[in-house]
Amino acid sequence: KLAGTADWWGEIDRVPVGLTEDRYVKSVEIIEVNDVDTQAASSRDTVGGLYIYHHMIWGTAVLDENLERVGDTTSWPVHEVGRNADIFDPGAGRLLKAGSFIVSDSVHMHSNGTDTTGHMEIGFTFHPVGYEPTFKTARFGLGNGVDISIQGSKKDQELHAYTVLQQHTKIITFEPHLHAPGERMCLEAIWGYTVETLSCVGYDHNWVRGYAYEDDSVPLLPEGTILHIVGYFDNTESNINVPDTRNWQGSGNRSVTNMFIDLGIRVTMDEEQFFDAMAQRRENLNLGPNDHVIGCPLCLAPLVAPMIEEEEEEEAEPSSNASADAQSNTVVSRN
C-alpha cells in the first residue's frame, strides 16, 4: 500500500488451505506480516501506523473446476487491525472442509503513511479426529450503522443498540468494533427488572481485541433477554486517533467515519443444554439460594423454586384429607 493513497476495498484471490480431510477447528488466528519498521518513529500522528489491513471479512468454501463456490461457505471471525486469536467454545468447533479455499470479497486496506508491503497469515488449531460439535453458532447482529452521528469537537458522546435473544444463548466473547473516535464500549443484559453489565472495555483503533469470558463467567442468557451495547466516543483533540476533530462523523467504512458493532462470538443452546449448563455453574461455584451470579439470571431459580413447591404440597395435603373425609362421610350417609 503506497503512502498517501486512498483507502481500497475489494476481493482477494482465492487461496487453497491444503486440507485433505474435514476437520473441526478449535481456534483461529490471523496476523498481518509487513515491512513496517517498528523501531522507527511512527509515520502517522493519528491512527494506523503499524498496519495496512483495516479488516477482512472472510470465509472458507469448496470450489469446483471453474473456481465457483460449491455448497455453503463457512464464515469465520472478522479480521481487524492488531487482532488477537479466536478460541471457540469447546462444544462449538467450526467445520473446515477438505479442499477448502480462503475466500473474501471484502478486504479494506488503509495507508499507514509509508510505502508498505504486507500480507496476512492464517493459522488453525484443530480438534481431534472424530470430534463433533454440540452447540450451534448464534446468528444475529448487535449494532447500529444507521443512526451514527458524532459531533465535532465534543467528547462523552454515546450510541446505543439493542437486540432480543430468540434462543437460549451463551456469550463466548465480547468484541467492540468502533472507529477512530471510539474510546469505550459496554455490554448489558436485561432480564425482567434486572439490568447487569456483562463487560465494559476501552477501545483503541490501533488494535482491536476480542475479550473471552472465563469458563464460570460465561453469560448464560435465557430466550427473551435483551442485549444492550453502549458506545462512548471522544471527538476532541484529547483523542490522538482523530485527524481533524472539527469534522462531524457519520456511518461509513473508512477509519475517519464510524461503525458501532459487537462482533463477539455466541452459541445457542436447546432447553436441555441450557439447564445442564446452569446446573454445572451452580456446582462449580458451590452456589446457594442467597448468592448472585452476574450473567446468569436463572442460575439460582432451582434453589428457590423447590422450597415454594414443598410449601404448596404441605398446604395441599390437609385439603386433600378433608376432601377424602367428606367423600367418606357422604358415602356413609347414603348407607
- Overall structural class, as computed from helix and strand content, comes to alpha+beta
Number of helices: 2
Q: How confident overall, as mean pLDDT?
A: 89
Using the 3D structure, state the CATH architecture of the largest domain.
Answer: Sandwich
Low-confidence stretches: 319-335
CA radius of gyration is 27 Å
Helix content: 10-25%
Q: Give the C-level CATH assignment of the largest domain.
A: Mainly Beta
Q: What's the shape? A: globular
Number of individual domains: 2
What portion of residues belong to β-strands? 35-45%
What is the rounded distance between the termini? 104 Å
Biased composition (Polar residues): 318-335
Region (Disordered): 310-335
Describe this structure as you would to a colleague:
The protein is 15% helix and 36% strand. The protein is globular. It folds into 2 domains: 1-131, Sandwich (Jelly Rolls); 135-301, Jelly Rolls (Sandwich). Mean pLDDT is 89; it is low at 319-335. The termini are far apart. A hairpin with a 2-residue loop joins β16 (182-191) and β17 (194-202). With 335 residues, the chain is α+β, with helices and mostly antiparallel strands. The chain has 2 helices and 22 strands. Strands 1, 2, 4, 5, 6 and 9 form a 6-stranded antiparallel sheet that branches. Strands 3, 7, 8 and 10 form a 4-stranded antiparallel sheet that branches. The protein has a 4-stranded antiparallel sheet with strand order 11-22-13-19. Residues 310-335 are annotated as: Disordered. Residues 318-335 have a biased composition (Polar residues).
